[in-house]
Design brief:
Rossmann fold; eleven-stranded mixed beta sheet; 11 strands; alpha/beta; disordered N terminus
């Protein structure tokens, strides 16, 4: 096989356990290299840029020749709805550095996503922030500053590793919370870095703030819709795991 038609070994960084389930039915352990089909691999990093950077470096060290992020994101753009798939044209960090996904790979993925029947946003920037944006005010402020369509915490860190290693990069996200949605800090702090509930913290949070219970149905529904979109994207985008440069 010639160099120009070889398969890429794609390394995919996911932060949350629910995101990993959209790509494999096998058990995925945190902070560990997990082989996928077609020579691809996955690393369940946990939330945040530091964890994502370690994951991307680990995948590259294990032989990944392309890097991707896959998971959920928050909307910053008004009208961007939960369950919408977003393949950004550019990824930014909070210092203003920009990273462009590999154009041919992105085009190929977008063509595959058309088969999902889901809403897909194929324009706009994704901003990665070091802390979650839990309130409408924080999202509006980020949109005003960066003019990005959506926000996550990991993609820019992975893109930076890809740039340092001279590897192609891609990001695919599903919108989970909309601009007008608020996630109470007490609930966010009641899950671990991989999005898994911390039962004791939840009990304490609900005992101190019973009104938090009213947020659960909406938050659960939003995550269910976003993860369904990720499952559909994972099924439609299977060939991206054996992408040819």
């Amino acid at each position: 096989m010639s160099e120009t038609t070889r398969h890429c070994s794609v390394g995919i960084v996911v932060a949350l356990a629910l995101e990993a389930k959209a790509l494999t039915t096998n058990t995925v352990y945190p902070e560990r290299f997990t082989p996928l089909a077609n020579g691809a691999s996955l690393w369940l990093s946990g939330m945040g840029p530091t964890a994502a950077r370690i994951a991307a470096q680990g995948l590259a060290d294990k032989g990944a020749t392309a890097l991707a992020t896959f998971g959920v994101a928050g909307a910053l753009q008004a009208g961007l709805r939960c369950g919408t798939l977003f393949c950004p044209a550019r990824v930014l960090d909070d210092n203003g550095h920009g990273y462009t996904p590999e154009p041919a790979w992105r085009t190929s993925l977008l063509q595959r996503l058309e088969a999902t029947g889901l809403s897909v946003l194929d324009a706009g920037d994704l901003i990665s922030m070091p802390i979650p944006l839990l309130t409408t005010a924080a999202k509006i402020a980020a949109h005003d500053r960066y003019a990005a369509a959506a926000v996550d915490m990991e993609s820019a860190a992975v893109a930076a590793v890809a740039k340092d290693r001279n590897l192609p990069f891609l990001a695919l996200r599903a919108i989970v919370d909309e601009v007008d949605d608020t996630v109470p800090a007490e609930l966010h702090e009641s899950v671990d870095a991989w999005g898994r509930p911390r039962p004791l913290k939840l009990i304490i949070a609900f005992s101190r703030h019973p009104s938090l219970l009213t947020y659960l149905p909406t938050l659960h529904s939003r995550m269910q819709r976003a993860t369904r979109a990720l499952h559909a994207a994972g099924n439609a985008a299977g060939p991206m795991l054996s992408w040819r440069p």
